[in-house]
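Dig into my protein:

:::
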Amino acid sequence: MFLDFEKQVAEFEGKIEELRHISGDGDTNIATEITKLQIKAERQLKTIYEKLSPWQKVQVARHPNRPHFKEVIKSLFSDFINLAGDRSYGEDKAINAGLARFRNQSVMIIGTEKGNTTQERLETNFGMAMPEGYRKAKRLMEMADRFNLPILTFIDTAGAYPGIGAEERGQAEAIARSIETSLSVNVPIVAVILGEGGSGGAVALATADKVLMLEHSIYSVISPEGCASILWRSSENATNAANALRLTAQDLYSLNIIDSIIKEPLGAAHRDHQTTMTTLGDAIESSLKDLLSNRTKNFRENRRKKFIAMTDNKLI
């Protein structure tokens, strides 16, 4: 699947596929032509992705082939034990969580899951969690604190589910309790924005000691469409809203909202999952080692100071 601004890349890759179908063994002329087209396609990708607009970043962050939390679990963790339910209402598949081992370190992992197939997307509500999902996250953060386990969270959601049922079951309170718990536990927390980091649904899992973002992910208080609907009374102004929201990883890093940007492969994460997973794992390991090397281990106090300091940022 190619995005609107990747039209020239799509043409190059289409020609490459055509030549591969007609090429025979030892046909050096066609092989040479394929190589030339591949070089042109890579150059075009490099040119495009070096100067993406905020709205184009939104499109990349939402790409359906982008790596999801389920793949992160399979690629980076071993001995994963799924822990379900909020012990109050039920299980929310939009938030997957459990115990695991990360490079010989026992951890608690919590993440939003959008799903890949139509059935999975319906089961996970397209990654939009219900109150029971955030209450499950709260329960497992407290468990991690009890057993002195680092917490790793992974965010890819347009936001918490805004439906009537969720509101009736206390959506706002559940999100607030999750944030409160994040600020209360005294174990290291590393959060990663994989794709979309939308609204309070993202903040509920991203109130961390270290917040990392993949290079072409986004993180904002509201979606561009939602912002446009409020300010211009029309979602057609989503492009203008994206520019104003300063939702890219680069903007947020310059504002000291996040701590690190994880570089993506040429053409973004959806084109090379394996490289993305390796780079992601290294970034998490580096952040976790940095936190665990803190001799005072006063994570709670340091985390609170970090977020209080953001209110003094005059650029926000």
Summary: The chain is about 50% helix and 15% strand. The longest helix spans residues 28-49.
